[in-house]
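Re: beginner question about structure tokens

> Can someone show what the tokenized structure looks like for a real chain? I only ever see the sequence side.

Sure, here's an example I had lying around. Input first:
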Amino acid sequence: MKIASASFVRSIASPAGLPADGVPQIALVGRSNVGKSSLINALTGQRIARTSAAPGKTRLLNLYEVIVRQVRSDALYLVDLPGYGYARGGAASTRAFDRLARDYFGTEAARGAPSGPAGVLLVVDARHPGLPQDVGAAGWTAQRGLPAIAVASKIDKLSRRERIAALDEARAALGTDVVGVSSATGEGVAELWRRILGLLRPGQG
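And the corresponding structure tokens:
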């Protein structure tokens, strides 16, 4: 599998600004400061997503276009949604984030197909498995029938024994399999791409 190209497209304040070209979109959702931007950089092999130590800073949908080659070429958008669980600006900002997420998943532009987005990457922190907000997000995506891949970020921060226990706990809490990934070392990135391509090519793996 090779990344033929990857680029930042634009930041969007409203789902009305999403492209309506039918290219499938993979949405990244997760708590603020969980490492979604770092994960995008690891997936693309480029520093195209800005990372910040200040949680709750991102208030827009950030759109990235990626072309992957493996036997054939696949184009997709990675859509980084604002993080949940912490909002700079208090309750009003939190409500704005929630509204933006609801609007995103409800738009035809986000779907690219009648059944909804091609998939969702639910990014959780491997060091804190089973947090109520992450469990709630998993339930939210499941209730809406959104194909989701749970990703435990920062797996390199744990010892081998700790990561086994953390992944088991995360699987039990989220009710799905979990891919352990390290944006720092690249561990798990190839497996995550395999699963993403499985969402883009249903029935083909």
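Each token stands for a local structural state, so reading them left to right follows the chain. The chain has one domain: 2-200.
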